[in-house]
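[Solved] Which block belongs to which protein?

Original post:
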Amino acid sequence: MDDVQKRIDELVKGNRVVLFMKGTADFPMCGFSGRAIQVLSACGVDKPTTVNVLEDEAIRQGIKQYANWPTIPQLYVKGEFVGGSDIMTEMYQSGELQQLLTA
């Protein structure tokens, strides 16, 4: 595991809820990242750990390899990959995301 993958792994496993996104929770830099923050907020997650991939190209590329998922944002809960904003929205609408976040 190279340094970037190790940094990502430590972030994912060291925080309960981690969102790799474009921008920040207060200032998302794309609509999908903004939607992901809104979904987390609707689930009662006010302060998720966020990683702005626009600040670190190595993380931006490395996160795609880490989960074998080509797009950003990416949500991790309790060390497990959940998905991007579309999957988050579907899980929220079904109630599954709320259950995952409160379990």
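(Second protein starts here: sequence line, then its structure tokens.)
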Amino acid sequence: MDPHTLTRPTLRKGIDHVGVTVVFFCHDGAGRFIMAKRNANARDEHGRWDIGGGALEHGATVEETLRREIREEYCAEALEITFLGYRDVHRTHEGQRTHWIGLDFLVHIDPRTVANGEPHKFDAVEWFTLDTIPEPHHSQFPEFLRLYRDRLR
């Protein structure tokens, strides 16, 4: 059989192999941060508020991915990036066990440029404070807050 005619199986990130994602907590430098409400077209966690993130693609650097995802989701440029840490994320989604490594970042952005860059995935993009976190939120957000809350102020 000709090896050029063979098709590769489609491997699903986080299911068939460990997925790597950049997670960003975008803030305005004055105590507010941005969250998006995921709609039915988002991959998962429909109707939940999320801070933002995206999978690392083969060949892209972590910083390229971070900057691209922030532009795509919030139409904003990263002004200052601080690496917070990583999380080893194990969960069950739609009956399947998933495994992701989350690279977590604190990112200063200009609030004047923020818009919903992915209305097909997000019903809303809004500003909040640590005292006004909306419900329901992404299932991984409580752990993010537990780890980094003191560094987000």
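Accepted answer:
You had them paired correctly. Confirming on the second one: The first strand starts at residue 19 and ends at 27.
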